[in-house]
Write a structure and sequence with these properties.
The protein has 268 residues and is of the alpha/beta class. The chain is built from 11 helices and 7 strands.
């Protein structure tokens, strides 16, 4: 299994899912270019380039057809990988991403995903006295409620910043901006989706970026998504957000179970 993370994240976005898959399935999760400890060249970036990188890494490791998991932007990369390198993809698990709705710049709930991502990019310039200070900053935010704060979240946040004192997010702002330019290219994205022939799970959070916020992918989008991928299997996970769906106990366990069941079905 290959797992591809989101716009400003890292491979540790999947630490919880990997833990809950332990003993059942092996999972390879790289840092995409421009993120984490991967190289940060001037370019090129973009969804097709990340897919090419993922394919090169898979071949270097001798990986054959794999279940490819993507969260947020990583879901778009996963669909591009399936379109560009179909021999490497046996199934797709798209978590909170992979599709651009008709009203992407201001969805039916009144949220503007582009504005939210732009705000997240601005945070990449900020520095913090220490990793502990960075963790404490996020503790004060609603994205990780107290009941979902756990060692996975702390490991994810600790890795997200570099340096000793001060620390700063590792993700390259120029890389993130370049990728964001492609994030709302609906026609191109849908053309990729229409080329998918492998089993596909679309996994959505009940809430948006924070608990109680309207979801980024509401129920009404499922039929719209199926116009591109008629065979998609849709799952909405109760009690999860865009972040806790992967890093919270409830979301990580459910996704691990779904992936394990998918892997079993592929081997039968």
């Amino acid at each position: 299994m290959v797992a591809l993370h989101g716009l400003t994240a890292s491979h540790l976005n999947f630490v919880g899912i990997a833990d809950r898959l332990a003993g059942r399935c092996a999972l390879f999760a790289p840092d995409l270019r421009g993120r984490g400890d991967s190289d940060k060249p001037d370019g090129p970036y973009g969804i097709p380039q990340h897919a090419r990188d993922a394919a090169a890494a898979m071949r270097a490791l001798g990986l054959g057809p794999s279940i490819v998991i993507g969260h947020s932007m990583g879901a778009f990369v996963a669909t591009a990988l399936a379109a560009q390198e179909p021999s490497l993809v046996s199934a797709l698990v798209l978590i909170e991403g992979g599709y651009v709705p008709y009203t992407s710049r201001s969805n039916s709930t009144g949220q503007d995903p582009h504005a939210t991502l732009t705000q997240r990019i601005s945070q990449l310039r900020q520095t913090y006295p220490s990793r502990q200070a960075y963790r404490e900053f996020w503790r004060t935010q609603p994205h990780f409620p107290p009941e979902e704060w756990n060692p996975w979240v702390e490991a994810f946040l600790d890795y997200e910043v570099g340096g000793d004192s001060p620390v700063q997010p590792k993700a390259s702002e120029s890389a993130v901006r370049a990728d964001l330019e492609e994030a709302f290219q609906r026609v191109v994205t849908n053309e990729r989706l229409k080329r998918i022939r492998v089993p596909t799970l679309w996994i959505r959070a009940e809430s948006g970026l924070t608990p109680g916020q309207p979801p980024l992918f509401p129920d009404g989008l499922v039929a719209e998504f199926r116009t591109c991928v008629p065979h998609v299997e849709d799952h909405k996970l109760a009690g999860t957000t865009h972040y806790t769906i992967a890093l919270g106990e409830q979301g990580a366990k459910k996704i691990a179970d779904l992936i394990s069941a998918l892997a079993g079905a592929l081997t039968r």
